[in-house]
What we know:
Blueprint: H1 21-36, H2 38-41, H3 44-58, H4 67-74, H5 88-106, E1 112-115, E2 124-127, E3 133-134, H6 175-207, H7 211-219, E4 224-227, E5 231-232, H8 240-255, E6 261-264, H9 270-273, E7 278-286, E8 290-299, E9 305-314, H10 320-336, H11 341-352, H12 364-377, H13 380-391, H14 401-413, H15 434-447, H16 452-464, H17 468-481, H18 486-498, H19 502-515, H20 525-534, H21 537-547, H22 553-566, H23 569-578, H24 590-593, H25 596-607, H26 622-627
Parallel strand pairs: 4-6, 4-7, 5-7
Antiparallel strand pairs: 1-2, 2-3, 7-8, 8-9
Helix pairs in contact: 3-5, 8-10, 11-12, 12-13, 12-14, 13-14, 14-15, 14-16, 15-16, 16-17, 16-18, 17-18, 18-19, 19-20, 20-21, 20-22, 20-25, 21-22, 22-23, 22-25
Amino acid sequence: MLHCCEMKIGITGAIAMSETGHTHDLLKREVGALLESAQFARSKVNRALLSFLAERIVEGRAEQINEYVVAHDLLGRGDDFDPAIDPIVRVRMRRLREAITTFYDDNPRRLTQISLPRGSYVLALKSDGETPQATVLSATEPERPLDHTAEDAPDHSPDDPQAQAPVPPAPAAPRSARWGAMRAVSVLVLLVAVGIGVFWVWQRVYLRPDPVDSARIAFESYPVIAIAPFSNLTGNPANTAVAKAFQRQIAGDFQRFGRARIWVLSADEYSEMEGSDFVLRGNILDLKGSVDVAVELSDSKTRRSYVDTRITRHLEGRSVSDALHEISLQISGGLGAQGGVISRVSLEHMDQNLNSDNDDQLDIYRCVTLTDRFLISYSIEQLKKAYQCFEELTVELETDPAGAASWGTLLLHAVPEFAYMDTDQLPERMRSTSEDVTAYANDVADLFPNSDMAFILFSAVNNAKGNVDLAIQNAQHAVALNPANPTSYAVLAYSYMAADLYQEARAAAQTAIHMSFEPAPYMYLPLLVAGLVQENARLVDEARQNMAGKDGRTYDFLLLAAAAMIGDQATVDALLAQIEPSDDPLALVRPFVQGQIGLGVLERYLESVGVNVPDAPCLDSVSGNVSRGLEGCPR
């Protein structure tokens, strides 16, 4: 499920499954049992959908329920909703169907069961082994609400067969009495219907947040990047059109990240930039023999410059458009990706405004940037802060791939058996399970099939579980979806490293570093291990210099192995003096490296400086387990 907080959503009305009060009672009991069950208590998404389907039946509109109705009326999609592009309704229905099935798998003795047949949007009911029948609204009988109170709660347990016994029909009244009763019932039904309608509208308008508005407000928390026209300084007026095309190319590459709102300006004027957070300007200096571009990112309000650089690409048989495309990827990736310049500047602004009164709970971008900070620091305290930020959100994440992927990243690192973090330091509510994270990653990939961030998360989850081939495929797909994202290449490098493919790991890590204006330290870990495996001292030294100063024992042992390989005895002595003894120095390294070859070379260099590394009882690498005759690591 792609949410992080619960919202009370009641059903204002009741359900009639047939024209008999007996069937009505059976349905009400079943829907109430579902909503009160553990499966549905944990899922606001399933509660809302079940409630929605029930409400439509109450209103007599069951036959009108279809994919468009659910998308428009429940999920807030607009008139341009296209189920061929946006599968959210099918995903929601599948998850509700699975939740209902799970409930009855856990409660097989229930005599009455609700189902959601495949291809249908209408609830069905079966009783005592009968074939499910589609729901039918009885417009002549007033109904009780599904949410039971103490006054109308059943006297028996929901699982008690006696509680589900049919109620014998009452004796027939005389004809005149029946006519009077029917008139009274008609008036009562009318009054109840009006009351239900008023309450339903009141709840919808005043109690239930408008999903479209929530999504819009949430997205408005993301920063605005105003991209000014690039100046043609090549001396050739014909290149003005190339400069305009380059401005649009950068805007399109930025849009793939979903982490900012992009304005394409018609002129470099401050009046057009009003309301933006950043402005990107640039000059095209040369298009002959090489493509030479200067770019600057600055604050729209203070005009403070954050990036002012010049990027050159020699053509060497390539076209100008290919070279400009490569530069555009580097600009958008270095500025707009996870942990990029804009993310870091946003964190600075956030720190400066800690004591401000602007505490908007719909600010998903704040939670996204806190997740970025966690990935840079790898601090358990930063994980807690980012996690708590998502917990406080009052909006869904199902319209926000960046927010959904960030939340999934936190869940991934909070799985104890993955051993990425010391999860004992996390509150119980923050700890995840492998099954929960896997299901979540699947849902994110289903909801956002065009988002590279969804498949970055999916790759990381599969890598953590030892599904290395699938992790590589997911990461490669993420690269194909957005070749501007350095994080895609970094995750691909870790997947290659788990498979002991160090030439590929090295190339992917170098691409990630090359595309980042401020590379994160974790990008250098595959480079360091690849250098150790390939006995490339230059590579090892480059990696260790960029990893130095990181807190944590994981980096200490990696840096010690690097110093031992290079022969830097002073660093070896210093690290040995500060590192605490460990029964298994590679315990914290294995979740990241995994492959037999990489772990073997780390073991060799650590033991060369007197650090004892015990043989692992198992390896996460499939090839390593087979070659050493070991069992696979339990998951």
